Amino acid sequence: MSEEQKGWCVHYLQDGDLAKDWKRPPLPSKEEALKHACETRRYHVVTYVEGPGGEIIDAKAVEQWCAEDRR
Q1: What's the domain count of the chain?
Q2: Of 4, 13, 25, 26, whose CA is between 20 and 30 Å from 47?
Q3: How many CB atoms sit inside 10 A of residue 19's CB?
Q4: Residue 56 belongs to what domain range?
Q5: Residues with Cβ < 8 Å from 47, sequence gap 6 or more?
Q6: What is d(CA 6, CA 71) in angstroms, rounded to the nearest whole number?
């Protein structure tokens, strides 16, 4: 994510292909990105969530957040 870009991106591997790292469009909040990461985990391997300023939420933290946020 460029430093100018605002928002949060979910980074994930598509179809288990370790050679590619795919990103969804930036989301406006950390919570929205984490919710989106939880949904994405149903079909892909989420590697991390990246926020403004380069903040990183690793896969293990995403997994934990998803487990705690079950609705």
Answers
A1: 1
A2: 4
A3: 5
A4: 9-68
A5: 11, 12, 13, 21, 59
A6: 28
